[in-house]
Structures are given as C-alpha cells and as structure tokens.
Design a protein that fits this description.
The chain is α+β, with helices and mostly antiparallel strands. It has 7 helices and 20 strands. This is Hsp70 family chaperone.
Length: 409
C-alpha cells in the first residue's frame, strides 16, 4: 500500500512493521485525553473535526471507557473533503489579483508580502466581527481610494473578510452536520483540531450552527493533536506502563467485495448478462458479493472470512496461482451497493499468490458437465480492517498463502 511503502522508503522500518493510524482518530485520542476538564463521561459522543491546510477530516466516537485505558466506538463512517485553509488562501489571492493586478507596481513580490500577512495574522485572528478591518502591505502600489490602497497598504473590511471565509466555513459546517445526522448516538461536543481548527471564526461559526445542544471545544495543543495522538496510541501498544487506546468497532467507510460467479436466476438477474458455464452445464452470471457495506460495524483486527473456489481445465496446465481482485465503492449512507459491477466500482487490491509449492496431485479434480476434467481449488479470503489500512489474506488448506495491504482512509 502507498502509505506503508512511503514510510519504508523514508527509513521508518519495514512496511510490515510500520504502525499507522488515521489522522482524525489520532487527533481524537489526544483530544479526549487532554479535555477531561470538559466533563466528558463514559457514554458521551463527540465529533472530531481535523481542519488542516488541504483537507478537513471528521470522525465520530462514543466513549466506552476512559480509565484505566481508553475504549472508543465509531458511530459514523469517517468523512472528509478538500475545504482546508489553503482554499481560503486562494480566495484571498484571487481578491488581490482582481483588484490590484492592473495597477502599476503590482508584481509577485507585492502579492507574496500581502499573502504572508494574510497567512500569519489575518487568517489566524479574524473572529468574524464585521467591524474588524485588516491592512495588508502592498509596497510599490500607488494610493487609490477606489481599490482601498493608501500609503502602501491595502484595506480589507471585516465584511469582505466574512465573504472570504463563509463558503469554506459552510462546507465544513455541512461535513459536521452530516456526521451528527449519521451518528447512531446523540452528539455532545465537537472537537476542533488542526491548523485551521484554531481559527476563531471557524469556532464561532460552528457554535452558532450547533449550539446550544452541542458544545464546540478547542483542545489544548490542537495544532499538533494528530502527532501527539499517534504517539500516544503507539506508546500504548508497545509499553505496559502507558495508557492504551482501543477502538471496539469502526464504521465501514465504503463497501468492499469481489466479483462472484453464480447460477443465473431469471427472477433476479439481468438476462443480458448471463453466460454459459460449460463445467456446470448451466447459465451463470457475474454479480458483486459485498462482504462489507458502507456503514457496517467492523471490529478491529477481526478477520471477515469468506469462502471461494476457482476452476481450471486440467488440459490447460497446472493450477499454480490464484488471481483475486478486490473492489470498493462509495455510496450515500443507507444506499444498498449494486448487484453488478459498474464504472463507479474501483479496484481496491489484488491478490495473486503462487501455489507452486502445492503438490499438483493433491489438487482436487472433478469431471464437468462437458465431460472435461477440471482442477478445483477452494480457498478463503480473510479481510481485516484497521484504523487507516486494511489487509486481505488468501488461505488454502489452513495456511496463509499471501496477503496484500491497502490504504483505508
């Protein structure tokens, strides 16, 4: 998988030994440990909103236990979108270009100075007050009352700042609302972390949207909540003296499955998709077998086992490998995944274990309806889902013949 491969290349150790955790889950772990004074108790449900530069990621947990260890249960599939603070920067840059680029003296250096002021001061301190105006350095630009430039400074009113922020804040508010409405439990608080999560205007906006029923909390060290939470979780896994964090179950973020060949049923299946199966002497059809649907509860590290079989004509050679493609599909919550493969279904992972070490005379054979001799291999797929990755293993005769890991975020 991409994440573990990058970690290995960066020198963090072998990919098989690298531990990874999703960013919102890591942030939630830190936030819950750092926010005990806020009166959170076992049974409370919180939405963690990790608002960063590029993405905003969310996850919803119910607290099952706080001490001696922390146990959590995910209440809604994690979501995210590209509505972080870099998109706010782009909106401000567009404003500058629209108003100032036609004026003498405008160049890249002038733009960079104004952008630096926006990034380090205005964006981080604006609270949403329409009366709060901001001045940005634009050296070399002549005074212009029409565009708001005076003595090398460009004036942006509080109302104009609001208009810059609001489209981004509305997107984030919609993501939070989706988590709250999808959750199986009553949400008590929203935790804001990440760089953009420190924005006073974002906190005010969410409070206005969801108060008084839901509290909006900015945890201590929210800027670095992800790395602190990841460290906390890892220390708990490797040390007997540190607090451990367990997630009893997670919600599947997408549907996962394989293509399955099954007998054609004219009351259920599309006749245009059927084909003749010479071995069985009957019409068959390829359908999707979804062993996990979006929103299903998944226990961490507990394998979901499914049984499969593949056949091959003996005259075509030895059965030396098994080819398995695994697929994923994102659908709206509550929507049943489709019966047939379509263009929206994406390849998730591929298993292709070599079976050459199996003695060929031990591979079962059977005679088909066409009087041809077939090898028949029966095997199992074990699917295991973790915080930020999943693993698929192919088992044959009680032995693991190969596995593949895939990103799960």
């Amino acid at each position: 998988m991409t994440t573990m491969s990058c970690a290995e290349k960066a020198g963090f150790g072998e990919a098989s030994k690298v531990r990874i955790v999703s960013e919102p889950e890591a942030a939630a772990i830190h936030s819950l440990r750092a926010s005990s004074p806020h009166g959170l108790e076992v049974g409370d449900t919180i939405v963690l909103c990790d608002a960063g530069g590029g993405t905003v990621d969310l996850i919803t947990f119910t607290i099952m236990e706080l001490s001696p260890n922390m146990r959590l249960k995910e209440e809604a599939p994690g979501t995210g979108s590209l509505c972080g603070s870099t998109f706010l920067n782009r909106r401000f840059e567009e404003m500058l270009n629209d108003r100032l680029s036609s004026l003498p003296g405008w160049d890249r250096d002038t733009l960079d100075e104004a952008m630096h002021r926006f990034e380090t001061v205005a964006k981080r301190t604006f609270s949403g007050n329409a009366d709060d105006d901001f001045m940005f350095p634009v050296p070399g630009i002549a005074d212009s009352q029409e565009v708001g430039v005076r003595r090398g400074r460009f004036r942006v009113t509080g109302q104009e700042m609001q208009q810059l922020f609001l489209p981004i804040l509305r997107d984030i508010g919609d993501l939070v609302r989706e988590q709250i409405e999808t959750s199986n439990a009553q949400v008590k608080a929203i935790f804001l972390v990440g760089g953009f999560g420190q924005s006073p205007y974002l906190r005010t906006y969410l409070r206005d949207c969801f108060s008084p029923g839901v509290e909006v909390i900015a945890p201590v060290d929210g800027w670095t909540a992800v790395v602190r939470g990841a460290l906390t979780k890892t220390l708990g896994e490797v040390s007997d003296t540190e607090i451990k964090t367990f997630v009893d179950s997670r919600k599947a973020r997408e549907s996962y499955g394989m293509i399955c060949s099954t007998k054609f049923n004219d009351e259920v299946h599309d006749a245009k998709k059927k084909y003749w199966n010479a071995k069985e002497g009957k019409f068959y059809i390829d359908v999707m077998h979804w062993f996990v649907s979006k929103g299903d509860d998944i226990e961490e590290a507990k394998a979901i086992e499914t049984t499969w079989s593949q056949h091959k004509l003996v005259k075509d050679g030895t059965f030396d490998s098994i080819h398995v493609n695994l697929y994923k599909l994102d659908t709206p919550m509550g929507e049943k995944p489709p019966l047939y493969f379509n263009r929206h279904v994406k390849k998730h992972a591929k298993l292709n274990p070599i079976l050459s070490q199996i003695e060929q005379d031990r591979v079962p054979t059977c005679c088909g309806a066409d009087d041809e001799l077939y090898y028949t291999i029966g095997f199992q797929i074990h699917a295991v889902y973790y915080s930020a990755h999943c693993e698929y293993m192919l088992w044959y005769e009680g032995r693991n013949y190969g596995s593949v890991k895939a990103d799960y975020v």
